[in-house]
What does this fold into?
Amino acid sequence: MAEIIDGKKISTELKDDVRAEVKALKEKGVTISLAVILVGQDPASTVYVNNKKKACEYTGIKSVSYELPEDTTEEKLLGLIDQLNNDPDINGILVQLPLPKHISEKAVIGRISPDKDVDGFHPESVGRLSIGEPGFVSCTPAGIIELLKRSGVEIAGKHAVVIGRSNIVGKPMAMLLLRENATVTVCHSKTKNIKELTKQGDILIAAVGKPRMIDASYVKEGAVVIDVGIHRTGEGKKLCGDVDFESVEPVAGMITPVPGGVGPMTIAGLMKNCLEAAKMNLSQE
Ligand code: GUN
It folds into this structure.
């Protein structure tokens, strides 16, 4: 029987820590603001953006919302980003992805000032992470490191296996685990004999994007299993992850559920990044 890692509880602890610091800054006259940009009305994106705004309210961070129509031009969006980059009252800028097809995500991400890039997607943020310089880190992997540390999981010296190599999760996750002195293996769709590798993982991070793909046959006895996936499947549209929870839970040492595992940590990670953005700004004044 695995210990269930309660992401909801741990994310609240992290948000409470952020809230206390935001309050202390407010008492010194410093307000923290996050600009949130949503283009179009993708239902999942709308839910994510609303959850981010709620977390801002909880932590005392001011959210400034830009809800733009689906047919917004790339030029118009880039113009708004320029304006927010130059606005000293805005600490962080978040453009919700995916964007409509006629807008280049690469151009948009590259236009956000690395000093306000609270999503950590800008090539400069990615570069800073890979050479160990301070900078913003993608919120999901940053949240997972917090989740591991706050659950008492020792990372240094452990073999961490990451399944998935996306720019948002897999790659930054591997970099962060390396920064925490784990030995890191990254597996992906072209990896041969994948189970031989995943079964070596003391820490197994599943970020494959396939519902319930990771069953007990992938998992080492006693491993810490972190499920990044979130899918709605079946008749009742029940939520599930990349991990087949029923199969893996009896084998794992610790496991995150879906929902209530990694999901809430992503948003808490974003709040922490906004606080860091404001602190960085203050130290440059
Ligand atoms: N779409 C899905 N995940 C994310 C995220 O972490 N940040 C942004 N901006 N968009 C997303």
